[in-house]
From TrEMBL:
Molecular-function annotations in GO: kinase activity
Presence of keyword Transferase: yes
UniProt keyword list: Kinase, Transferase
Signal peptide range: none
Metabolic or biological pathway, per its Swiss-Prot or TrEMBL entry: Purine metabolism; ppGpp biosynthesis; ppGpp from GTP: step 1/2
Plastid keyword on record: no
Originating species: Paenibacillus albus
GO biological process: guanosine tetraphosphate biosynthetic process
Lineage, uppermost ranks: Bacteria, Bacillati, Bacillota, Bacilli, Bacillales
Alphabetical list of Pfam families matching this protein: RelA_SpoT
UniProt protein name: GTP pyrophosphokinase family protein
Domain RelA/SpoT: 50-173
């Protein structure tokens, strides 16, 4: 599709709004992480990645959906133009961060897909939320949608490898590779549960030691 100068300007302006929405989400996540670090000496977020979909992949996705290519249709039909990936250590952190985001009064949750509770048939696990947030521009408020993917480090490891393999084969993935990906995804689930169990055991141990120290000080 050829874009004239006016269209290029309009698309650039639209993408700028999505960039501002990502900036807002990034700030929200940084505040939560820093506050939790300060108050509880614990940060649930390992790291955050953001990306804006390129105009080429927006056009490709619109065409795949059989929708006319326009700025308005992009905003209406593609809800992951702005994407945020939040990587946490444990599944409990994933739900904790999810809960803290959805409770913020300027965040409107449009849709939630829990692929941790119900993984995709290929084994993919992540918690997806589509939200809408207001951004305050010179001429007024714009409500912008953002896709937030929350997952553990282990889930992220699996998903990045699977993504690369998928792009190599698309729908012609050899059955043995498909099976191994599913098996490794199941192993990721087991690993995440073991790591969480370990973390909880360490926590109980630390609490017991602290309780002993407090009672011996009181004597
Ligand atoms: P990219 O290149 O990461 O942006 P929709 O976006 O609503 O039209 P869908 O499939 O209903 O499509 O949405 P869903 O299930 O919420 O998935 C959206 C995004 O999640 C994908 O974006 C991927 O980033 C990720 N995802 C979903 N399924 C898989 C999977 O099986 N493996 C991996 N590695 N990632 C997955 P895009 O636009 O497809 O890709």
């Amino acid at each position: 599709m050829m874009m004239d100068k006016q269209m290029v300007m309009e698309w650039a302006k639209m993408l700028m709004s999505y960039k501002f929405a990502l900036d807002e989400i990034n700030t929200k996540l940084t505040i939560l992480n820093e506050e939790l670090q300060f108050v509880h000496n614990y940060n649930p977020i390992e790291h955050v990645k953001t990306r804006i979909k390129s105009p080429e992949s927006i056009v490709e996705k619109l065409q795949r959906k059989g929708v006319d290519v326009s700025k308005e249709n992009a905003a209406r039909h593609i809800r992951d133009i702005a994407g945020v990936r939040v990587i946490c250590s444990f599944t409990t952190d994933v739900y904790r961060v999810y809960d803290m985001i959805q409770r913020q009064s300027d965040v409107k949750v449009i849709e939630v897909k829990d692929y941790i509770k119900d993984p995709k048939p290929n084994g993919y696990q992540s918690l997806h939320m589509i939200i809408e947030i207001p951004i305050f521009l010179s001429e007024g408020i714009e409500h912008v949608s953002v896709e937030i993917q929350l997952r553990t480090i282990a889930m992220d490891f699996w998903a990045s490898l699977e993504h690369k393999i998928y792009y190599q084969f698309h729908d012609d993935m050899p059955e043995s590779i498909r099976e191994q990906l599913k098996e490794t995804a199941d192993m990721i689930g087991v690993l995440d549960r073991r790591m969480l169990g370990l973390k909880e055991e360490v926590q109980r141990f630390t609490e017991q030691v602290e309780a002993k120290q407090t009672s011996s000080l009181a004597m």
